[in-house]
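Quick one, tokens below. Sequence please?
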């Protein structure tokens, strides 16, 4: 299986084979984080720029850890210390970074489509680390990996995604990924945050929390994203938490072996009670651990495998030119044909 894309901008449009390949690759990288020396030479000599225009704990840290565990050099740039504060456009920032020849740029931005814009202006792989309310592909991949690990499968499961669906990039990426992998997705929340047109995306819509989580295999709770709200979506936070905070009572409506996810950051007592967040069904810390493996896999398939292709092609060119030293480099993979195809992918 090949991942023949130059960028990772979203899960919309990815095939089940591509998602499975990313999950399998992530699974194979998990072992590196269990070693005493948590490092492999895969991306030695490569540079990854983390460009974050929004705050982040999990995504930025795990991308940096992932790059370092692959032996890449990392550069972190946040909006507050970038020349964006002096009026530089996103495209100019990206062009200037690209002129320094990084091997990948990881970008988080409050505007939907920002990573797609960068992908048109720079010639290195772009990884979307969250763009507005649009997509957060590596979050959904780590969610899928966590579900697959715990349940042994994704196809046939019913997954309730609960809360502020309207503003959630996590929900969108998960909807695309879960449906492609054969799961049934239920969006649960008040009509103001789960508008009827969301049904067109292929999700079942339910307004009542207890009905929404009934008999589900997986509950994924979402944070109320006040930073993206420009109106009133409920009377008060108290009222919202009374109706939609995941309590032990609500969890009892789900299947006995339900697992509970939350992408973080959590607002304890608003969308999830501490008893549930820290309870036996919670896999929230597994998600964080899997985040490193998924980001290692994303960097590897976009940067490391491309490098393998370059090595392979150089080797073959040397052979064609009849050089006396035309032996395959020790580091070059033997699967020449599929890797050559990957080199031409966009
Ligand atoms: N889940 C997530 O994206 O968390 P951060 O905002 O901390 O990166």
């Amino acid at each position: 299986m090949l991942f023949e894309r130059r960028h990772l901008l979203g899960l919309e449009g990815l095939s089940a084979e591509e998602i499975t390949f990313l999950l399998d690759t992530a699974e194979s990288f998990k072992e590196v984080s269990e070693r005493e020396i948590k490092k492999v030479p895969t991306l030695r000599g490569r540079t990854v720029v983390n460009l974050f225009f929004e705050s982040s704990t999990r995504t930025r840290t795990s991308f940096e850890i992932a790059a370092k565990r692959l032996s890449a050099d990392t550069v972190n740039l946040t909006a507050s210390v970038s020349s964006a504060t002096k009026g530089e456009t996103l495209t100019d920032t990206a062009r200037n970074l690209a002129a320094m020849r990084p091997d990948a740029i990881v970008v988080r931005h409050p505007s939907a489509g920002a990573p797609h814009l960068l992908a048109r202006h720079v010639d290195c792989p772009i990884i979307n680390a969250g763009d507005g309310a649009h997509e957060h592909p590596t979050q959904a991949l780590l969610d899928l990996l966590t579900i697959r690990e715990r349940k042994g499968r994704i196809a046939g499961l019913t997954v309730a995604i609960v809360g502020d669906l309207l503003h959630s990039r996590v929900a969108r990426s998960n909807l695309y990924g879960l449906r492609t992998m054969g799961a049934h997705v239920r969006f649960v929340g008040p009509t103001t945050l789960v508008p009827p047109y969301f049904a067109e995306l292929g999700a079942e819509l339910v307004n009542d929390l207890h009905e929404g989580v009934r008999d589900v295999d997986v509950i994924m709770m979402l944070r109320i994203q006040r930073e993206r709200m420009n109106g009133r979506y409920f009377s008060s936070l108290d009222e919202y938490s009374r109706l939609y905070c995941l309590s032990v009572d609500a969890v009892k409506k789900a299947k006995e072996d339900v697992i509970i996810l939350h992408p973080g950051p959590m607002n304890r007592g608003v969308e999830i009670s501490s008893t549930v967040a820290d309870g036996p069904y919670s896999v929230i810390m597994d998600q964080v651990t899997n985040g490193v493996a998924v980001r290692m896999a994303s960097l590897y398939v976009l940067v490391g495998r491309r490098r393998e292709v370059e090595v392979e092609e150089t080797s073959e060119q040397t052979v064609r030119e009849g050089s006396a030293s035309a032996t395959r480099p020790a580091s070059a993979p033997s699967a020449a044909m599929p890797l050559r195809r990957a080199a031409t992918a966009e």
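Confidence is low (pLDDT under 50) at residues 323-346. Residues 56-59, 130, 139, 263-265 surround phosphoric acid mono(formamide)ester (CB under 6 Å).
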